[in-house]
Structures are given as C-alpha cells and as structure tokens.
C-alpha cells in the first residue's frame, strides 16, 4: 500500500529535495508552501511525472487553523498520513540580541517551534495505534545552530532549533507506545535560499573554510538522512539525531 508523507515547506530547498526523493521511493506527497506557489506546483508536477500522487497545499504552518485544514485536505485527497517532515523554517537579518524586537523573536519562535508542535499533533492523532492508526514516523529538521548558538547572527533562530531538539527527545518517548518514531536531522551550512533572509546570500561560500569538509552541503544530502530516519531501516531509532554538517 502506498504511504503518504506531509512535508512542511517543500516548495524549495531541503523540503523540495526531500519530496522528490520520497516520491522516488514510493510515497505520495503533500507539498506544503507559504508564498511560492509556482515552485510548489513545479514540485508537484515532477512527482506526478514519477507516477505518484501529489498535492500542493498553501498553509501557514504557524497558524492552527491552517494546519488543521492542511491535514484535512491530505485526508481527503491522499489518505491518512504515515510520515511527517517538520521542515518549514525561517531566520531573519543577522543582528545581536540587544537589537531584536519582540515581533521578530515571536515570528521566529512561532514559525520554527509552534508549527512543529501543531503538525506533530495532527499527525499523531492520525498515526496513533491507540486511535486506530497504523503508527508512523516524524522527522524534525533542526539545525547545528542548536548546539553552536549563532552568536552575533541569529540567537533567536538557534534557540528555536534548541527547542526542537528537546521536543524531539520528549515527543519520541511520549508516542513510542503508539507506534510512532520521532527523530531529527541537524543540517549545517546547506546551499539553499534561506541565507538570503539573513542579509548575506553568499553565506555558504563565506563559511565553507570553517567546515572540516571545506564545503557547504546540498539539500539532497540532508534529504537522504531524513529519508533514512523515516524508513524501516531506522526501525530501532527514536529520539535520535543525525548531524549533516560536513564535520562542523
Ligand atoms: P528555504 O529554502 O528557505 O525553504 C523554506 C521553506 O519553508 C519554503 O518552502 C517556504 O515556503 C517554507 N515556509 C516558510 N515559512 C513557512 C510557513 N509559515 N508556513 C509554511 N511554509 C513555510 O529553507 P531551507 O534551507 O530548505 O530550510 C529548511 C529547514 O532546514 C528549515 O527548518 C531550516 O531552519 C533548516 N536548516 C537549514 C539550513 C541551511 O543552511 N539551509 C541549515 C540548518 C537547518 P515558500 O517558499 O512557499 O514561502
């Protein structure tokens, strides 16, 4: 039977790479996006050309009503979710904490933390054996920033990813008896458009000398780790982390 995967923020970057690789191994995919409709439709088109079903859903995953609607649309069009990748995330202009506004901090925290909780909640309600579900797997996309701290850049972002690490550990223990595994990947410097939000679109080439492998990573390299954690090959892994950082 075909499995169904929801990937938040999969119009581009790590989410889009994960969607294409997941479709190639047989998943039907919900491609969630916020603003980049054309890119989301292109990902859906590529998946459909692979012979799989795909659905683009615009939803702000930091908004509870949007998340509830997203999962209802997946129920209707693709069926019950088997796998969730909590991936949508944002950062903001580099600045010290002493200059950060509450508006900025709250946007980072609700987009990067609240959304992961809301999507996990909707997925668990459907996957949980106690609710008649079949179990499932969740992967949270955290960041190496959770342990590095991103001083002078975006400590708010790094702290949001620290929260995701703690969520991963707690939630994994909470839902293990219901047949659900919860793991995380912690990417390092990956070549995607997210760096434009920091005000430095050359960030990957600037930072590569600080990476033991002397290069940035690709979205596909992160997607491979996500897919392994979702797969049956990771059947004894829960509450665990894969760092995809080139050794940083
Ligand atoms: P990206 O290329 O900027 O893609 C971000 C995706 O998230 C886009 O599809 C965007 O949708 C979506 N999104 C943003 N806010 C959203 C919201 N409120 N609701 C729904 N979707 C939303 O970023 P990326 O580099 O692939 O990052 C993916 C994840 O990896 C993030 O959690 C990020 O923190 C993490 N990460 C990235 C790196 C890196 O170096 N790239 C390193 C460590 C961790 P639209 O395009 O439609 O607006």
TrEMBL record:
InterPro entries: NAD(P)-bd_dom_sf, Sc_DH/Rdtase_CS, SDR_fam. Gene3D superfamilies: NAD(P)-binding Rossmann-like Domain. Keywords: Oxidoreductase. NCBIfam families: PRK06123.1 (NF004777). Belongs to the short-chain dehydrogenases/reductases (SDR) family. This is NAD(P)-dependent oxidoreductase. It comes from Piscirickettsia litoralis. The lineage of its organism: Bacteria, Pseudomonadati, Pseudomonadota, Gammaproteobacteria, Thiotrichales.
